[in-house]
Design a protein that fits this description.
The protein is mainly α. It is built from 17 helices and no strands. The chain has helices at 13-22, 30-43, 54-71, 76-89, 93-112, 117-123, 131-138, 143-152, 158-161, 164-171, 177-194, 199-206, 211-228, 233-245, 249-262, 269-277, 282-287. It starts with 12 loop residues before the first helix and ends in a 14-residue tail after the last helix.
Length: 301
């Protein structure tokens, strides 16, 4: 079912739903989870019948984070251990790290963003109910787990993060530049969605940030149009045009260049639609496949 999921719409929600539904009414023992790990890793690894883009692969691992919460009956420590194991056996190097991070995001998202009564029942004994409780809760973890927990707690900090000063306060909590960068990246995506994808409202927030963060804000807002629905390439390009008016167009167009091969397979109709929406010289760079030369975590360093 995962391999057949339609993608490029509804923020790739089918990949979430397939893994959650399979284990919604079933709690697995530690032995059963260990036995299942190779199959879970295989489900998200590109292969026969699963011609995933890198974005689809990442969303699949995110979904397995949700699955971990379901399959362990809401036992968060076991769910996080599952993510660490997946990151080790599924891939290696940078891809393994990304797999683990995406899985952790899915697990912690379940703690802070449950969508229905069944979701809530799974985590009601551990889920914080205020920003202060969330802060204490996340301090119970270390390293990347703590960082992911913090940024996924944004629903309890929405009044803070929807303002430029509040967002800066929220994401500058760590001295680790990678954790700060990831926090901003996630929050820029979230804020655009919470602003109902309104370009003017998002622009008003981005333009009040320092130059580097402003560039990052426009860039991730632009790519999130595509992330949420691959048909929104014109909206993404339009956001970068606004970024260019603010003197940070290169960062924004570089993000879309990266997304041309992160979200799409090269030389597909969707790939060409994005490339042709970009102005010269970015259009030529996109058509040449220059997006392969970019990695997500080098863009804002």
């Amino acid at each position: 079912v995962i391999a057949r999921c339609p993608t490029g719409m509804c923020a790739n929600g089918c990949l979430h739903g397939a893994v959650q539904q399979r284990f919604q009414d079933e709690v697995l023992t530690e032995r059963e989870v260990a036995q299942l790990l190779p199959d879970l890793a295989s489900a998200c690894t590109p292969g026969v019948g699963k011609d995933y883009t890198p974005l689809e692969e990442a969303i699949c691992y995110h979904g397995l984070g949700h699955l971990g919460v379901y399959a362990t009956g809401g036992n968060l420590s076991r769910a996080l251990a599952l993510c660490s194991a997946l990151g080790t056996i599924a891939t290696d190097g940078e891809r393994g790290s990304i797999a683990r991070m995406r899985c952790l995001e899915g697990a912690f998202m379940h703690v802070f963003q449950f969508l229905d009564a069944e979701d809530k029942a799974l985590v009601q004994d551990i889920s914080p109910t205020s920003s202060k409780e969330a802060e204490v809760f996340c301090l119970g973890f270390t390293g990347e787990e703590q960082a992911v927990c913090h940024r996924e707690s944004w629903p309890l900090n929405w009044d803070l993060v929807k303002t430029p000063l509040g967002l800066t306060e929220f994401c500058n909590y760590s001295s680790n530049p990678r954790y700060m960068q990831d926090c901003y990246n996630v929050l820029f995506n979230v804020i655009l969605a919470m602003f109902q994808y309104d370009q003017a409202t998002m622009t008003a927030l981005c333009e009040q940030l320092p130059a580097g963060r402003m560039a990052q804000c426009f860039a991730h807002a632009a790519s999130h149009y595509i992330d949420s629905n691959q048909d929104l390439v014109q909206e993404a390009a339009s956001m970068c045009a606004v970024a260019a008016d603010h003197g940070v167009g290169d960062r924004c167009y570089s993000e879309l260049l990266f997304f041309s091969v992160y979200s799409f397979h090269e030389k597909t109709p969707e790939f060409y639609r994005l490339c042709n929406a970009l102005p010269i010289p970015w259009r030529g760079k996109c058509l040449r496949g220059d997006g392969h030369q970019i990695t997500a975590h080098t863009l804002d360093i």
